[in-house]
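Write out structure tokens for TsaA-like domain-containing protein.
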Amino acid sequence: MRHTIESIGRVVSPYTQKFGIARQPGLVPAAEVSIVLDARFNEDAVRGLENFGYIWLHFIFHGVLDEGWSPLVRPPRLGGKRKVGVFATRSPHRPNHLGLSLLKLEGIDCTGGGVIIRCSGADLLDGTPVVDIKPYIPFVEAKPEAAAGFAGAAPPLLDVVWQAGETRLSDGLKRLIAQSVAQDPRPAYQDIPERVYVMEIGGWSVRFRIEGGTAVILAVEAV
């Protein structure tokens, strides 16, 4: 029997392009998003969810739907050199392009007639279709002793130096930009110190370069 999965809502995110999005949830705590549920859902659908600290968000990698998939991929954590099976990775290039993120639940707003779920620590592109939401249950799902394959520890962070632009930004936006750039969004195989990268985030275009373990933010301009 065939069944069609329909989206239940969409994500409003400061990440408006794929480049610069955190590669995993929780790595950029300042990345706050809103999950706007479709009009057919009211407060009954989220009743009791406010009592949980985190949620599992099931979504579609809509930004890569036309790029297909491969049984072997090159994870950034392996330097982009070694291939592993797609099902041993979190790659967005999957047979069904389904994603799963664990997000910190910051609040739920049902005052406007609809349902908006606010979360932080997101790794989601703006407009991402949401297909399901489930509460995170620590005693069942937290397994700190589990084998972690090639992702045994968090990747090292870059030092971030502001050369220009930060005086026009709010503290929250500065944290979002700094935390995102510190993750080193470059392709794993790319190390060109003189290259200038451009990332759009939160309505701003951020220009930066990376040399060694330091990222220098060169300019921040409104999009």
